[in-house]
From TrEMBL:
Protein name according to UniProt: Transcriptional regulator
GO molecular function, one term: DNA binding
Taxonomic classification: Bacteria, Pseudomonadati, Pseudomonadota, Alphaproteobacteria, Hyphomicrobiales
Listed CDD domains: HTH_XRE
Gene3D superfamilies: lambda repressor-like DNA-binding domains (1.10.260.40)
Domain of life (superkingdom): Bacteria
Source organism per UniProt: Methylobacterium tardum
Every HTH cro/C1-type domain range: 17-72
Length: 251
Protein backbone atom coordinates (compact mmCIF):
# COMPACT_ATOMS: atom_id res chain seq x y z
CA UNK A 1 0.00 0.00 0.00
CA UNK A 2 2.86 2.41 0.81
CA UNK A 3 4.08 2.29 -2.82
CA UNK A 4 0.74 3.39 -4.24
CA UNK A 5 1.24 6.39 -6.52
CA UNK A 6 -1.06 9.35 -5.97
CA UNK A 7 -2.97 10.94 -8.82
CA UNK A 8 -1.56 13.79 -10.88
CA UNK A 9 -3.97 16.25 -9.27
CA UNK A 10 -3.02 15.09 -5.76
CA UNK A 11 0.69 15.22 -6.61
CA UNK A 12 0.40 18.76 -7.96
CA UNK A 13 -1.45 19.91 -4.85
CA UNK A 14 1.07 18.28 -2.52
CA UNK A 15 4.01 19.77 -4.43
CA UNK A 16 2.50 23.23 -4.12
CA UNK A 17 1.91 22.79 -0.38
CA UNK A 18 5.45 21.51 0.20
CA UNK A 19 7.00 24.39 -1.75
CA UNK A 20 4.99 26.87 0.30
CA UNK A 21 6.04 25.15 3.53
CA UNK A 22 9.70 25.32 2.51
CA UNK A 23 9.45 29.02 1.73
CA UNK A 24 7.50 29.81 4.90
CA UNK A 25 9.84 27.89 7.18
CA UNK A 26 12.97 28.89 5.27
CA UNK A 27 14.40 25.40 5.17
CA UNK A 28 16.16 23.76 2.27
CA UNK A 29 14.96 20.80 0.26
CA UNK A 30 18.00 18.88 1.46
CA UNK A 31 17.00 19.47 5.08
CA UNK A 32 13.43 18.36 4.44
CA UNK A 33 14.61 15.25 2.61
CA UNK A 34 16.85 14.29 5.52
CA UNK A 35 14.12 14.86 8.10
CA UNK A 36 11.61 12.87 6.03
CA UNK A 37 14.14 10.06 5.45
CA UNK A 38 13.83 10.18 1.67
CA UNK A 39 16.42 10.91 -0.99
CA UNK A 40 16.86 14.45 -2.26
CA UNK A 41 16.48 13.11 -5.81
CA UNK A 42 13.06 11.65 -4.99
CA UNK A 43 11.91 14.94 -3.49
CA UNK A 44 13.25 17.04 -6.38
CA UNK A 45 11.59 14.87 -9.03
CA UNK A 46 8.23 14.90 -7.23
CA UNK A 47 8.28 18.68 -6.71
CA UNK A 48 9.19 19.22 -10.36
CA UNK A 49 6.35 16.96 -11.55
CA UNK A 50 8.73 14.39 -13.07
CA UNK A 51 7.27 11.61 -10.94
CA UNK A 52 4.12 11.32 -8.79
CA UNK A 53 4.22 11.28 -5.00
CA UNK A 54 3.78 7.87 -3.40
CA UNK A 55 1.74 7.31 -0.27
CA UNK A 56 4.92 6.40 1.66
CA UNK A 57 6.75 9.56 0.60
CA UNK A 58 3.74 11.71 1.43
CA UNK A 59 3.37 10.23 4.92
CA UNK A 60 7.05 10.82 5.66
CA UNK A 61 6.81 14.42 4.48
CA UNK A 62 3.72 14.97 6.64
CA UNK A 63 5.62 13.67 9.67
CA UNK A 64 8.63 15.88 8.92
CA UNK A 65 6.54 19.01 8.35
CA UNK A 66 3.99 18.30 11.05
CA UNK A 67 1.06 19.04 8.76
CA UNK A 68 -1.34 17.17 6.52
CA UNK A 69 -0.62 17.26 2.80
CA UNK A 70 -3.57 15.20 1.60
CA UNK A 71 -7.04 16.57 1.06
CA UNK A 72 -10.21 14.57 1.40
CA UNK A 73 -11.34 13.35 -2.01
CA UNK A 74 -14.45 11.75 -3.37
CA UNK A 75 -16.84 14.48 -2.25
CA UNK A 76 -19.08 15.89 -4.99
CA UNK A 77 -18.15 19.40 -6.00
CA UNK A 78 -20.68 22.09 -5.15
CA UNK A 79 -22.46 23.74 -8.06
CA UNK A 80 -20.24 26.85 -7.87
CA UNK A 81 -17.09 24.69 -8.06
CA UNK A 82 -18.02 23.05 -11.36
CA UNK A 83 -16.76 26.06 -13.25
CA UNK A 84 -13.38 27.75 -13.13
CA UNK A 85 -13.19 31.10 -11.28
CA UNK A 86 -14.21 34.19 -13.18
CA UNK A 87 -10.57 35.32 -13.14
CA UNK A 88 -9.75 32.32 -15.35
CA UNK A 89 -12.75 32.58 -17.69
CA UNK A 90 -15.59 30.78 -15.85
CA UNK A 91 -15.26 27.74 -18.11
CA UNK A 92 -16.56 24.24 -17.41
CA UNK A 93 -14.45 21.15 -17.90
CA UNK A 94 -16.59 20.06 -20.83
CA UNK A 95 -15.91 23.30 -22.67
CA UNK A 96 -12.12 23.00 -22.40
CA UNK A 97 -11.56 19.23 -22.46
CA UNK A 98 -10.02 19.51 -25.93
CA UNK A 99 -7.04 21.39 -24.44
CA UNK A 100 -6.12 18.61 -21.99
CA UNK A 101 -3.07 16.57 -22.93
CA UNK A 102 0.70 16.42 -23.07
CA UNK A 103 2.62 18.82 -25.28
CA UNK A 104 6.16 19.04 -26.56
CA UNK A 105 7.10 22.61 -25.67
CA UNK A 106 9.70 24.63 -27.58
CA UNK A 107 11.31 27.99 -26.96
CA UNK A 108 14.73 29.50 -27.69
CA UNK A 109 17.40 28.68 -25.14
CA UNK A 110 18.13 31.68 -22.92
CA UNK A 111 21.67 30.47 -22.26
CA UNK A 112 23.00 29.13 -25.58
CA UNK A 113 22.66 31.25 -28.71
CA UNK A 114 21.00 29.29 -31.51
CA UNK A 115 19.92 26.41 -29.28
CA UNK A 116 16.30 25.41 -28.61
CA UNK A 117 14.95 24.39 -25.22
CA UNK A 118 12.53 21.44 -25.41
CA UNK A 119 10.44 20.05 -22.55
CA UNK A 120 6.96 18.72 -21.77
CA UNK A 121 3.88 20.66 -20.66
CA UNK A 122 0.94 18.70 -19.25
CA UNK A 123 -2.51 20.30 -19.10
CA UNK A 124 -5.21 18.57 -17.05
CA UNK A 125 -8.39 19.28 -15.11
CA UNK A 126 -7.95 19.63 -11.34
CA UNK A 127 -11.22 18.63 -9.68
CA UNK A 128 -10.27 20.05 -6.28
CA UNK A 129 -9.81 23.60 -7.58
CA UNK A 130 -12.22 23.29 -10.56
CA UNK A 131 -9.84 24.56 -13.22
CA UNK A 132 -7.36 23.48 -15.81
CA UNK A 133 -3.83 23.37 -14.45
CA UNK A 134 -0.49 22.89 -16.15
CA UNK A 135 2.87 21.59 -15.09
CA UNK A 136 6.21 21.27 -16.83
CA UNK A 137 8.34 18.12 -16.91
CA UNK A 138 11.38 16.69 -18.71
CA UNK A 139 13.24 19.95 -18.11
CA UNK A 140 17.01 19.63 -17.80
CA UNK A 141 16.80 22.41 -15.18
CA UNK A 142 14.16 20.52 -13.19
CA UNK A 143 14.17 22.82 -10.11
CA UNK A 144 12.89 25.64 -12.34
CA UNK A 145 9.96 23.69 -13.80
CA UNK A 146 6.77 25.74 -13.63
CA UNK A 147 3.18 24.92 -12.78
CA UNK A 148 0.03 26.98 -12.47
CA UNK A 149 -3.47 27.68 -13.74
CA UNK A 150 -4.89 27.89 -17.26
CA UNK A 151 -7.13 30.80 -18.22
CA UNK A 152 -9.47 30.45 -21.20
CA UNK A 153 -11.54 33.65 -21.47
CA UNK A 154 -14.20 33.70 -24.17
CA UNK A 155 -13.57 37.34 -25.07
CA UNK A 156 -10.06 37.11 -26.55
CA UNK A 157 -10.10 33.52 -27.73
CA UNK A 158 -6.61 33.04 -26.31
CA UNK A 159 -5.20 30.55 -23.80
CA UNK A 160 -3.07 31.75 -20.89
CA UNK A 161 -0.72 29.60 -18.78
CA UNK A 162 -0.29 31.57 -15.57
CA UNK A 163 2.25 31.04 -12.80
CA UNK A 164 1.84 33.18 -9.68
CA UNK A 165 4.46 32.32 -7.06
CA UNK A 166 4.06 34.68 -4.11
CA UNK A 167 3.30 37.54 -6.51
CA UNK A 168 6.01 36.69 -9.02
CA UNK A 169 4.33 36.05 -12.36
CA UNK A 170 5.21 34.12 -15.49
CA UNK A 171 2.82 34.15 -18.44
CA UNK A 172 2.43 32.23 -21.68
CA UNK A 173 -0.12 33.59 -24.18
CA UNK A 174 -1.18 31.05 -26.79
CA UNK A 175 -3.57 30.96 -29.72
CA UNK A 176 -6.10 28.16 -29.67
CA UNK A 177 -4.99 24.84 -31.21
CA UNK A 178 -4.92 24.62 -34.99
CA UNK A 179 -6.17 21.59 -36.90
CA UNK A 180 -2.98 19.69 -35.96
CA UNK A 181 -3.54 20.46 -32.29
CA UNK A 182 -0.58 22.87 -32.17
CA UNK A 183 -0.59 26.05 -30.08
CA UNK A 184 1.68 29.02 -30.78
CA UNK A 185 2.33 32.24 -28.91
CA UNK A 186 4.81 33.97 -26.64
CA UNK A 187 6.34 33.42 -23.21
CA UNK A 188 7.05 36.31 -20.84
CA UNK A 189 9.32 35.48 -17.93
CA UNK A 190 12.51 36.43 -16.08
CA UNK A 191 16.01 35.38 -17.08
CA UNK A 192 19.30 35.64 -15.25
CA UNK A 193 20.96 38.97 -15.96
CA UNK A 194 24.17 40.45 -14.64
CA UNK A 195 25.25 39.15 -11.29
CA UNK A 196 22.18 38.23 -9.28
CA UNK A 197 19.82 40.40 -11.31
CA UNK A 198 16.75 39.05 -13.09
CA UNK A 199 15.72 40.58 -16.41
CA UNK A 200 12.26 40.49 -18.08
CA UNK A 201 12.31 38.57 -21.36
CA UNK A 202 9.86 37.37 -24.01
CA UNK A 203 10.32 34.60 -26.55
CA UNK A 204 8.30 32.67 -29.15
CA UNK A 205 6.66 29.55 -27.77
CA UNK A 206 5.26 26.44 -29.44
CA UNK A 207 3.21 23.65 -27.83
CA UNK A 208 2.80 20.57 -30.03
CA UNK A 209 1.01 17.27 -29.36
CA UNK A 210 3.66 15.18 -27.61
CA UNK A 211 4.08 12.64 -30.39
CA UNK A 212 5.64 15.42 -32.48
CA UNK A 213 8.72 15.24 -30.25
CA UNK A 214 9.00 11.46 -30.01
CA UNK A 215 11.78 11.33 -32.59
CA UNK A 216 14.09 14.04 -31.24
CA UNK A 217 13.18 14.21 -27.56
CA UNK A 218 13.77 16.83 -24.90
CA UNK A 219 16.62 18.93 -23.59
CA UNK A 220 18.82 21.67 -25.02
CA UNK A 221 18.83 21.06 -28.77
CA UNK A 222 21.90 22.67 -30.35
CA UNK A 223 22.24 23.69 -34.04
CA UNK A 224 24.18 20.49 -34.72
CA UNK A 225 21.45 18.19 -33.32
CA UNK A 226 19.25 16.19 -35.75
CA UNK A 227 15.99 17.76 -34.58
CA UNK A 228 17.16 21.37 -34.50
CA UNK A 229 16.01 22.40 -37.99
CA UNK A 230 12.55 20.92 -37.47
CA UNK A 231 12.16 22.52 -34.05
CA UNK A 232 13.39 25.87 -35.41
CA UNK A 233 10.74 25.76 -38.15
CA UNK A 234 8.02 25.34 -35.51
CA UNK A 235 9.26 28.41 -33.63
CA UNK A 236 9.46 30.46 -36.84
CA UNK A 237 5.74 29.88 -37.40
CA UNK A 238 4.96 32.05 -34.38
CA UNK A 239 5.94 35.16 -36.33
CA UNK A 240 5.70 34.01 -39.94
CA UNK A 241 2.15 32.66 -39.60
CA UNK A 242 0.96 35.62 -37.53
CA UNK A 243 0.43 33.88 -34.20
CA UNK A 244 2.28 36.75 -32.47
CA UNK A 245 3.78 40.09 -33.42
CA UNK A 246 7.21 41.29 -32.38
CA UNK A 247 7.48 45.04 -32.88
CA UNK A 248 10.86 46.37 -34.02
CA UNK A 249 12.54 48.54 -31.43
CA UNK A 250 12.76 52.31 -31.81
CA UNK A 251 16.05 52.65 -29.91
Amino acid sequence: MSEIELSEAQSRAIAQTVREALARRRISRQTLAEEARISLSTLEKALAGRRPFTLATTIRLEEALGQSLRQETGRPAPEAARHAPDALGSYSRESVAWIEGRYLTLRPSFGDAGAIFAYRTEIAWDADSARLVFREAERIDAPFAQSGSVAVPSQSGMIYLVTNWHGQHRLAVLCRPNIQGEMYGILTTLVAGRGTQLTPASAPLALLPEQAGAEFGYGRIGPEAPGHARYRDYLRRVHEDGYATFFPGAL
